[in-house]
Structure formats: structure tokens, C-alpha cells
Amino acid sequence: MTFPSKVKIVEVGPRDGLQNEKETIPADIKIALINQLTAAGFANIEAASFVSPKWVPQMATSTEVMAGITRKQGVIYSALTPNMQGLTAALAANADEMVIFGSASEAFSQKNINCSIADSIERFRDVALAAKQAGKRLRGSISCAFGCPYQGEVSIPAVIDVLQRMRDLGCDEIDIADTIGVGTPNKVKTVMQALVQEFPIDRLSGHFHDTYGQALANIYASLDVGISIYHASVAGLGGCPYAKGATGNVATEDVLYLMQGLGIETGIDLDAVVEAGQFISQHLGRKGSSRAGNAIAAKRASV
Ligand code: HMG
Ligand code: MG
Known about the structure:
Structural class: alpha/beta
Strand content: 5-15%
Bound molecules: 3-hydroxy-3-methylglutaryl-coenzyme A, magnesium ion
Radius of gyration: 18 Å
Oligomer: single chain
Strand order of the largest sheet: 1-2-3-4-5-6-7-8
Number of strands: 8
């Protein structure tokens, strides 16, 4: 398979990246980060999450954040919407894309959204319908597609089953997520090859956490299957509050560096993303985990 000549990188740092931070990050910092990411050229930024603030307190500022950002025409600002309450808030905040998030693992579904996979799909039915009626894009996210922190193995038929259900709900795009970063390239390739039989390849995305250091290799394996949408988090921020020990998403700077080296177009200014990574890392008071980001920043500081 020849690699795609162009990929879409979805920046998920403001949501997946920040949701796990213990200290409350003020809305104006999140807004400044999203504005910097917009200026860097992302076509899609996951900016908010309308979930229960009791479950994920960090995302409680989502309405304020959505109201405060400077939007660029054509950029999709996405928001997580687990139920009708979330969807109503996301519509009021004028999110462009609603994200329903389910799991291929029964155990993780219970821990993350407090219901079974089957019940979650029923709950998403109304959300999907209302999102479509409002003329919004709908994205589905499938957690634990390569392994689960609670039940271990997750079978390919289980992933296919959720994919088919999300497809039938009308999802425009579906994310295949390695929530705890346990996948390795051959496994990822096998799963992706099975999924592209069920859903258009240009609307499937890879959402890789880098817990075991495999994310870039898994992206490379997915490129080989022909997948052309990848999620990444500036400065490698993140982790899921309901997946203990899960670290951040693959760092955006590392993915951009990889794509540059492979001659794959992204439309994103790597230097501007490095700046954004430095900005948020400085606010959090620690060094970002992007290897490319840190190398570029160090090189810059030395000249
Ligand atoms: P529940 O407790 O079963 O819901 O939670 P409920 O309907 O019984 O409501 C209980 C309370 O929550 C009520 O408040 C509701 O109003 C409130 P109370 O009456 O007790 O004061 N509530 C809400 N408040 C604000 N916004 C809402 C909302 N819904 C209910 N939308 C629920 C069910 C899904 C809400 C809960 O489990 C939840 O919020 N879970 C969030 C989990 C989460 O955000 N996880 C992280 C994101 S997913 C992820 O990171 C994975 C991903 O990156 C892919 C990957 O890497 O795998 C996407
Ligand atoms: Mg995630």
C-alpha cells in the first residue's frame, strides 16, 4: 500500500490532553492555547467536553472556553457529548462536531460512562439524531480497540460490532482508540485492515496514546493500511481519568515531524505547534513530553 499523500491531524490536546490535569486550568489559558492551535493551521481541534463535572472536573469550563475562542472559518471545533444533556450544552456552545464515545470493552464502558456498551449505543441514538437534525457533524470514538485496562484482551469482532453500530447511527468519522497505548504495529495493522472492510477508509482515524512508546510505530502501521486521519496532543499532554496509568496521546509535534520526513502534507506549521506546546507546558510548570518539540525548542534556544 502506498502511504496517503496528505493526512488530517486532529489536535485533541485541549480536551484529551487537559482533561486529566488535577489543577484547574483557567478558561483563558485554554482559550489562548486553542487560539494558538487555530493559528498553527489545524483543520480540526477537539476543544471541549460536555460531560458531568463530577466525573471530569477539568472540563467544567467548556461553555466558557467555546464562547471565548476566536474561530477560524472552516475549522471544526469538536466537543464530547455523552448524552442529551451534553448535546444540549454543546449545541448552545455552537460546537461544530459532536463526539459520542463508546468502548469495545464492556468493563471500560462501565467505568468510563457508567453503562453497558448496548445501553451506550441506545443513549447515543438520540444524541446522533439531534446532532444531525441540527446540521452538525457526528464523530464516534471507540475506546480500548487494542486492549483494556480492566478486561485485558479485546477481540476484533467486538471492535467491529461497535464500529457497525456507530456507522448505523450516522457517524461521519470514527476513531479507533488505543486508550492505554498497548497496541503494537502488527496488531494495529490487523485491526485496521479488518475495520476498513466495514467503514470508508478516509473517514476512519487512529487515536493512539503513547503509554508504551508505540504510538508513532502504530501510526506508521496505520499509514501503511491507508488511514489518513490521526489524533494527537500538543506537548503529548493527557491521559484518560478512567484508564489508570494511561499517559498522553502521541505528541502532535512528533507526528508532524514524522509526516514531514515522510513527505506527507498536513497543512500545519510545526514551529507554531512547538510554541503552543511551550506555552501550555510553561503554564503547567513542567517540560512537555514531545521529543521533537523539546529538540526543536532546545535548538532554537541555542542560536
Ligand atoms: P451518570 O452518573 O450515569 O449520569 O453519568 P446520570 O444521567 O445519572 O446523571 C448524574 C448526574 O450527572 C446528574 O447530576 C446529571 O445532571 C449530571 P446531579 O443530579 O447528580 O447533580 N450529568 C451531567 N452534567 C453535565 N453534563 C452532562 C451530564 N450528564 C449527566 N453531559 C455520564 C453518565 C456519561 C454523564 C458520566 O459517566 C460522565 O460524564 N462520564 C464522563 C467520562 C469522561 O469524560 N471520560 C473521559 C473522556 S473519554 C476518553 O478520554 C477516551 C477518548 O479519548 C478515546 C480513547 O482514548 O479511548 C475519547
Ligand atoms: Mg484518548
